[in-house]
Amino acid sequence: MGPILLGILAAFFFAFTFVLNQSMELSGGSWIWSASLRYIFMVPFLLAIVMARKNLRPLLQHIKENPYSWFLWSFIGFVLFYAPLTYAAAYSPGWLIAGTWQITIISGAFLSPFFYETKQTNDGLAAVRAKIPFKGLWMSIVILLGIMLMQIEHAKQIPLRLVLLGVIPVLIASFAYPLGNRKMMEVANGSLDAYQRVLGMTLASLPFWLILAGFGFVTEGAPSMSQSLQSLLVAITSGVIATVLFFKATDLVRGNMAQLAGVEATQSMEVLFALAGEYLILSMPLPSPLSWAGIVFVMLGMAFHSYYTLRREDESMKINA
């Protein structure tokens, strides 16, 4: 199964996050429990999968040999990604968060200098520090315009302060997720599969989630049965299935920033999946024409970006042939 198709399937299951987080928010559940319970519930499922594949010992050994890297990048890639995302659900509908989340393709591009990619040089294949693809960033204007159109429509209904509380956390998450994911790929260096990597990052970030859960118990009380069940569903669909699919897709194009950007571009489908879910499950009203225009711009921007990166890769292969 190709990495692009895996990315689209991941987007479908990731959309459950936005829909169910919105559902929990509407029912009065705290974002603290929505965030922490997802990762706490993920542990037994991932543990069972990795143990069944007889891959637990190599993972634990790898974490033991690189504890600082595992804790740092897992905190950035999981905690600084998902905690802000669930917090934003209190101020924006799920489809709008999913739409704003697409800015991660731009955030990921600006993170390129933090990584190396394999390129053909006069001395053969070599790891070269990646550069920000400024030539392809013109398409980012289309994505940003789409996000602005959606947020302008939303800002007509609530104060600017609340709009920012729904946007800024998503911006933080948009940098944290690709940074943590890509850095952990570098640390693993192909020695761990997607299941091991997701379990390892979940275990490494677990202390932070337990601390957050303890804080939630003191300040908010115990979660309701409904929120616990919905968090369990998020853990299975988004935390296990979607994350493993997405990590598998990124593993397939590891070391190639152009193809990696193409896989990340598939996540634009989350907007439509989340919108359909909120309409069908939560009976939420459909967006206004202006917001629909914003969604179209975001989708087109992501599609253009994917096309550009794939074309650039084809040209690079012809040059090196």
Could you walk me through the main structural features you see in this protein, from its secondary elements to its overall organization?
The chain has one domain. The protein is mainly alpha-helical. The radius of gyration is 19 Å and the shape is globular. The protein is built from 13 helices and 2 strands, in the order ααααααββααααααα. The protein has a two-stranded antiparallel ribbon with strand order 1-2. The model has no long low-confidence stretch (mean pLDDT 84).
Secondary-structure blueprint:
Elements: H1 3-26, H2 31-52, H3 56-65, H4 67-88, H5 94-101, H6 104-110, E1 116-121, E2 124-129, H7 140-155, H8 160-188, H9 194-220, H10 225-252, H11 257-265, H12 269-281, H13 289-320
Antiparallel strand pairs: 1-2
Helix pairs in contact: 1-5, 1-10, 1-11, 1-12, 2-4, 2-9, 2-10, 3-9, 4-8, 4-9, 5-12, 6-8, 7-13, 9-10, 11-13
In short:
The chain is mainly α. The chain is built from 13 helices and 2 strands; from the N terminus they run H-H-H-H-H-H-E-E-H-H-H-H-H-H-H.
Number of discrete domains: 1
Low-confidence stretches: none
Number of helices: 13
Number of strands: 2
Query: Span from first to last CA?
Result: 26 Å
Biggest sheet strand order reads 1-2
Which structural category do the helix and sheet elements fall into?
mainly alpha
**Largest sheet: number of strands, sense, barrel closure:** 2 strands, antiparallel
Percentage of residues in helical conformation: over 70%
Mean pLDDT: 84
Shape descriptor: globular
Rounded Rg: 19 Å
Strand content: under 5%
List the helices and strands in order: HHHHHHEEHHHHHHH
